[in-house]
Structures are given as structure tokens and as C-alpha cells.
Specification:
The complex is a heterodimer of chains A (316) and B (263).
Chain A (H helix, E strand, L loop, with lengths): L2 H28 L4 H6 L5 H11 L5 H13 L13 H36 L4 H14 L3 H15 L15 H34 L3 H8 L4 H38 L5 H11 L2 H29 L1 H6 L1
Chain B lengths: L1 H28 L32 H37 L1 H15 L3 H11 L4 H27 L3 H8 L4 H9 L4 H25 L10 H8 L7 H25 L1
Classes of the chains: A mainly alpha (316), B mainly alpha (263).
Chain lengths: 316, 263
């Protein structure tokens, strides 16, 4: 992939980010309800309301407000939370390590489960093991992550007593225990995603393995395992990489639900509480951050895609 | 061999879905107990002949609540898919068929909307309004429009220069007729499998939102809601969480097996 194409995609990504931030700002600007009234509550007088509106910049034209919001957002100033009176940026920064750890762990589990299992299935295509995994896969794909989380809590927490259900340990207190606890929600998120990518990898390997170059590799005397890992896998990975990129974004957003199952005070917790408190600066900031993460991940996947499959950049 | 395996998948999927459907339809007329009737003597009662799935924290029969709750879950899923498909078809058809500036702008907005994971988008829409079953349907429906619009658009782009479309135009068919009478039926194959996937995603999203407490509101039972209520009782009454979850898995599994056959 040449530099020109990457720059083009990069500019396109920036435009999408801009559009997303605009949509979020627009949505929260047109909803009924005056933030100044909300902040002052019952003590509001017409004069104090007017003063606060002026102070919060609510009387300025829409685009001016958007521009100044965006500029301070990019600088890291995401406004002040209505209900906690804290800077939104530091509130989120506190919780980000939790959500990020969970996402990274879950994504690692997906990778660790997918590749060996997918290759194993393809190698023993049609065998007992393969058929068993295919059926198991189909069922695992249908397990919602939060129910997986409940099952894991029952099996590993209540029956096997490997961890204390709901006994979250903060990463500032004991990082090793924190990591240990985070493994369980991470597995719950990873299971359905891993099942989908195993299915994709398996069928992708099988269709690549029928091609001429694989047959040539066989005729050179390579074993099945050799052919699959050294010749076929690189090509077979291409659709899987796209899926994994989407899965990473999904895992990041899906952590909101799983946090509730394992009683983890992460980004999901503040998002939910600020939605019910109508604490809009926090909701807006989290939305923009989460969707920006998704857009940036997609951009990186696009670039990686071009590197592992040079045909892509020739096509368009 | 391959074909037979696919058929087997289809039959298993169909059987599961029909059983689920029967359970839901029967639930319309008959449940073993009143799903709302509380009984303090049966709080968190385990499985028994009288209550095969046990009772919840208020002593309500879990089986009866599942029968009514899966109806809510499936209805929300259906309504979401109907809204998503309807507006998706309209937006996708016009942008794909006519192209031009409007297409560019609408598709950029759709791309931007797709950057929000659908559950996040639905969360915000609920956040702007009040949590209720109707708002949940609306929120999920809106969240599902972009993906349907993209699929329909690419199908219309593929079809609009085909011979049969040209022939229809030469016969004097107007744009509307070409779009909805001639092209639309040819997109059914692609559309139907994405409708099934969309239905599953909608069911999952409903369960997730109700699990978070911002979807279906009490006292209406829904599978997600039951699991969220069951969370505090996983020590004393694990069946309270497990049975609704199993039914949810069966609903999704049945539809996805049928879907994999259509692909």
C-alpha cells in the first residue's frame, strides 16, 4: 500500500471523526431541556439562569458552540460533569485502564483460542474432533456475553470458588489480583467472538487449501500441518483480520454490559449512571471517545489489510 | 455431503424455532401459573414437578414468566427488524438507484452512524427519552437502519444496470416501478439472510438493554430483565438466571441455523 493511499484513507478517517462528533453534538443540542435549568434546579431565578447561560456559552450561535466544544475536546478539556462537578476528562481517565485492560485481555483470548482451534479443525476436516468443535462453535456463537458471564460466575465463582463473585479489586490496590479478576469477564466476552472467528478461519483455510499453490506445496512433500501453517494461513487470515478488527471494536463497546455482571466500576458504569442522571457532558464525551476508537481501529485494520494482501491496493 | 449437512442444520434450526414459537403462542392463551402471581411460601423454590423451572425471588413461576417474557423479547426483535428493514430499504433503494450528491451525503452519515456500536446508539436514544418498551423498539430500530441501508444500497447498485432493468425501463416503467416492483424482489435472497442476522442481533440487544435495566420495564417480564433480576440470587437460586438464558440461546441458535442455510 503506497503512502498516497494511506494519506487518503487518513483524511477520510478524520472526516468521519468530525462527522461523528458533529452528530453527537447536534443530538445533544436539539434535545429538550435546558442544561442551565438542570444545573440550578429549584433555586433558579430568571436572572441567575440568564447569567449561567451566558457563563456556559449557551447563548452563542450553534456552530460557534460546536467549534469551541470540539477544540477544547481535542485539547483534552471535555467539560465539567453536571452531577459530580468534576472535569469529565479525569473521570474518564480514571476508568479507562479498567475498560482497556478488559478489552485487551478479551482480544488476546480471542486470538489464543481462534488460531490453534481453527487450524486444528481444518487439519482434521470432517473428523470427529472437527465435527464436535463445529457443533460447539454454533452453540457458543449464540451465547450472549452477559449470560456467558453469569454462567462463568456460577461455575467458577459459586461452584469452584476460583474467584469471589462481585469482588472486584481495584488496579491501584493489587494489580495482579485485578488482572486475575478481569480474566473472567474477558473470557465471557471472548467466547462468542472466538466462536465466530473460528468458523470464519476454518472455512477460509478450507477454501484456500483447495487452490493450486497448496497442491504444489503438498507435492513438494510437505505435511498437512506444514502446508496449512506456512502456505495457506497467510492467505486464509485476510477475511479473519477484517472480522477481528470489527470484533475488537465490538468487545470495547460490549464491555459496558459485562461490567454490570461482574460489578466492575469501568466506563460502562459511568455511562449508565450519567444517562440516568442526564449528565450530558459525560455521555457526550464517552460516546465520542468510544466511536472514535471504533473508527481508528477500522482505519488501522484497513491499513493492515493492505499490507498482508497486496492485491487489495492494486484493485482500487 | 455438504448439501446434506446444510439441510440437517436447517432442520435442527427449524425444529428449535418452531418449538420456541409454539411456546410463545401457547403463552398467549395459557401459562401454568399467573406470571405475576407472587407466593411468599415459594420464594426461590428449586425445580419441582409443580414448578419445573422453579420460582423467582417473589415466588413467581419461572416457566410461566419465561413463556410471557420470550414473547416480549421476540416481539421487540421483530418490530426492530421491521423498522430497520423498512427505512433501510427506502434509504438504500433511493441512494443506490439515483446516486449523486444525496447518496454521498446520506452514505457518509450512515458510515458515521455505523461507527457507533448499535447497542451504544440505542443506549443514547433511550437516554434522550424515557426507558419503555416502545422507546426501546424505536431506539433499536433506528440503530439498525444504517446496516440495512448499506446492504440494500449495494444490491441496488449491482442490479440497476442489469438487462432486465433496462428492459423494464424500455417498456415504459417509471423509476418507482423499476425500483420496487422489478429490483426489490431480486434483492430478497441477500436481504432475507441479513434480516435473520438482524433479528438475532436485535434479540441480543433487547436482552442486553433490559439486562442493564433500561429496556423493557417491570412488571413486564423479558428474558433479559429476568436475568438481571436473577443476578442477586445466583448463590441461592442459579436456575432463575440459567433457564431464561438457555431459552434466549435456543431462540438465537434456531434462527442462526436457519440463516446459515440461506447463506
Amino acid at each position: 500500500m503506497n503512502a498516497k493511499k494511506i494519506i487518503k484513507k487518513f483524511i477520510f478517517m478524520l472526516l468521519t471523526l468530525l462527522l461523528v462528533s458533529f452528530l453527537v453534538f447536534l443530538a445533544f443540542a436539539i434535545i429538550p431541556g435546558d442544561p442551565a435549568v438542570h444545573k440550578l434546579g429549584t433555586q433558579a431565578t430568571p436572572e441567575s439562569l440568564e447569567a449561567l447561560r451566558e457563563e456556559m456559552g449557551l447563548n452563542r450561535p450553534f456552530f460557534a458552540r460546536y467549534a469551541s466544544w470540539l477544540i477544547s475536546f481535542v485539547k483534552g478539556d471535555m467539560g465539567i460533569s453536571y452531577s459530580y462537578n468534576l472535569p469529565v476528562g479525569s473521570m474518564i481517565l480514571d476508568k479507562l485502564p479498567i475498560t482497556l485492560t478488559m478489552t485487551v485481555l478479551a482480544f488476546m483470548f480471542v486470538l489464543i483460542i481462534t488460531f490453534p482451534t481453527g487450524i486444528l479443525c481444518a487439519k482434521h476436516n470432517g473428523g470427529k474432533l472437527d465435527r464436535f468443535i463445529v457443533i460447539l462453535n454454533q452453540i457458543m456463537m449464540s451465547v450472549p456475553s452477559f449470560f456467558g458471564g453469569i454462567l462463568i460466575t456460577i461455575i467458577f465463582g459459586v461452584v469452584l470458588k476460583l474467584f469471589m463473585p462481585g469482588g472486584y479489586i481495584s488496579y491501584t490496590k493489587n494489580f495482579t489480583k485485578f488482572l486475575g479478576y478481569m480474566c473472567f469477564p474477558a473470557i465471557a466476552i471472548a467466547i462468542p467472538k472466538a466462536a465466530m472467528s473460528i468458523k470464519l478461519l476454518r472455512s477460509s483455510i478450507l477454501s484456500e487449501a483447495e487452490k493450486d499453490y497448496a497442491r504444489t506445496a503438498y507435492s513438494h512433500g510437505n505435511t498437512t500441518g506444514d502446508v496449512l501453517i506456512h502456505h495457506v494461513l497467510q492467505n486464509a487470515m485476510i477475511p479473519v483480520v477484517t472480522f477481528l478488527g470489527m470484533a475488537l471494536a465490538d468487545i470495547f463497546a460490549g464491555s459496558i454490559i459485562i461490567e454490570q455482571v461482574f460489578n466492575i466500576p469501568g466506563m460502562g458504569r459511568i455511562l449508565l449512571s450519567s444517562i440516568s442522571n442526564r449528565d450530558y457532558p459525560v455521555v457526550m464525551a464517552i460516546l465520542v471517545l468510544l466511536s472514535s476508537a471504533v473508527i481508528i481501529i477500522n482505519f488501522i485494520v484497513d491499513i493492515v489489510y493492505g499490507i498482508i494482501d497486496p492485491r487489495v491496493s492494486q484493485d482500487d | 455431503m455438504k448439501r446434506r449437512k446444510k439441510n440437517l442444520n436447517f432442520h435442527i434450526g427449524l425444529t428449535i424455532s418452531v418449538v420456541m414459537l409454539i411456546m410463545i403462542v401457547v403463552g398467549l392463551f395459557y401459562t401454568p401459573y399467573n406470571p405475576e402471581a407472587m407466593n411468599s411460601a415459594l420464594k426461590n423454590a428449586g425445580m419441582s414437578l409443580a414448578h419445573p423451572f422453579g420460582c423467582d425471588n417473589f415466588g413467581r413461576d419461572i416457566l410461566s414468566r419465561i413463556m410471557v417474557g420470550s414473547r416480549t423479547t421476540v416481539l421487540v426483535g421483530l418490530a426492530t427488524v421491521v423498522i430497520g428493514t423498512f427505512f433501510g430499504i427506502i434509504i438504500g433503494a433511493f441512494t443506490g438507484y439515483f446516486g449523486g450528491m444525496a447518496d454521498e451525503i446520506l452514505m457518509r452519515i450512515m458510515d458515521a452512524l455505523l461507527a457507533f456500536p448499535s447497542i451504544l446508539l440505542a443506549l443514547v436514544i433511550i437516554g434522550l427519552f424515557e426507558p419503555s418498551t416502545w422507546n426501546l423498539i424505536m431506539a433499536l430500530g433506528i440503530a439498525f437502519i444504517p446496516s440495512f441501508a448499506r446492504i440494500v444500497r449495494s444490491e441496488f447498485l449491482r442490479c440497476k444496470n442489469m438487462d432486465y432493468v433496462t428492459a423494464a425501463k424500455l417498456n415504459g416503467a417509471g423509476d418507482m416501478r423499476v425500483m420496487f416492483v422489478h429490483i426489490l424482489p431480486n434483492t430478497i435472497k441477500v436481504l432475507s439472510s441479513s434480516v435473520l442476522i438482524g433479528f438475532n442481533n436485535a434479540v441480543l440487544a433487547e436482552a442486553g438493554m433490559s439486562f442493564l435495566g433500561i429496556g423493557v420495564m417491570p412488571p413486564d417480564p423479558s428474558l433479559g430483565r429476568m436475568m438481571s433480576e436473577a443476578q442477586s440470587y445466583i448463590f441461592s437460586n442459579p436456575g432463575f438466571a440459567i433457564f431464561p438464558g438457555m431459552i434466549l440461546i435456543l431462540i438465537i441458535l434456531g434462527i442462526s441455523l436457519i440463516g446459515s442455510y440461506l447463506e
